[in-house]
Amino acid sequence: MTVVSINGFGLQEETVLAIGKFAVLWNIFENERFGNHCTVEKLEKLNLGPSKEWQELAQVVNKRQKLWGVTQENYVGTKLRTKGLNSAKIEKIKTFLQSEGQQSIEGGLFILYRIRNNMFHGLKEWQMLDSQTELFNAVNKVLERILRGNQ
Length: 151
Hints:
Number of domains: 1
Radius of gyration: 15 Å
Shape: globular
Number of strands: 2
Largest sheet: 2 strands, antiparallel
Distance between the termini: 35 Å
Order of helices and strands: EEHHHHHHH
Strand order of the largest sheet: 1-2
Number of helices: 7
């Protein structure tokens, strides 16, 4: 396991690669789909169906919620930091998670958007990034599927 030193803090190379890949994939996704200006309202208009990648994302997020030992309500509100999303959009996230990625794909898109916002605008928990590699890998698979046009 290779460790990358960033400003004196060590991160696993796999984590750095997953986050870097996410940054590039999100940039391409936002550029191609939204002319470099993604909003929740625009995400909601994408017509995407369920897939194994969405299922994997839901499973990873549900696993993380259980690891934190909190309710889904608490996890969605505090860990995904859904401040700014109205209750209908938060319900779509919950439906996505409860259906294991089979329903409310908009909710899954909102999760992607929250991860993006939290990574670049939100409270930084860089000390915990190595524990999020699985999440970034799942998000990257979803973005790659969307960019391939298989949705």
